[in-house]
Amino acid sequence: MQKYRYILSVSVPVILAAFTAYAAGQNAAVHVEISNIRNSKGDILCHLFSSAEGFPEAHAKAFRELHAAINADHAVCDFKDVPAGTYAFIALHDENLNEKMDKNVLGIPQEGYGASNNVHPLFSAPDFKDAAFGVAAGSVTPLKVKMEY
């Protein structure tokens, strides 16, 4: 009986560690490089959405949110532990740190934004389907996003 207890006490943690490593390896990362930031005021709000619901403005519905510091005219957002699937990314240059897109009386954005696939419609916010990209299990998905003002 002691022999079996020893085998279980040694093998169960090894099996659990192997399973955890395998499961963690299935998640991916999304690395976003943002360029064309007009000044170093404020920071960059980065939102990764896993569905069209709330994209691009309902930040509370984003899969994940990050704040990125501005370095010269660039910023980087790194999302870790992202399950495989379809996502869309949106970044906001939050110059006054109020955590929302400032607009004028006509609804035109006064702060810069950038979306995955560099989608920048002229008279509307980007659609999820136009900004959508795939994330494969265990991979790093690189994105380059240009901020528009």
Descriptive keywords:
three-stranded mixed beta sheet, alpha+beta, Immunoglobulin-like, five-stranded antiparallel beta sheet, globular
Give the SSE map:
Layout: H1 2-26, E1 28-35, E2 43-49, E3 64-68, E4 75-82, E5 85-94, E6 113-115, H2 128-131, E7 133-135, E8 140-146
Parallel strand pairs: 1-8
Antiparallel strand pairs: 1-4, 2-3, 2-5, 5-6, 5-7
Structural description of this entry:
By secondary structure, the chain is an alpha+beta fold. It has one domain: Immunoglobulin-like, CATH 2.60.40. It is built from two helices and eight strands; from the N terminus they run H-E-E-E-E-E-E-H-E-E. It has helices spanning 2-26, 128-131, and strands at residues 28-35, 43-49, 64-68, 75-82, 85-94, 113-115, 133-135, 140-146. Strands 2, 3, 5, 6 and 7 form a five-stranded antiparallel sheet that branches. Strands 4-1-8 form a three-stranded mixed sheet. The longest helix has 25 residues, at 2-26. The chain is globular. It starts with a helix and ends with a strand. The model is unreliable at 10-24 (pLDDT under 50).
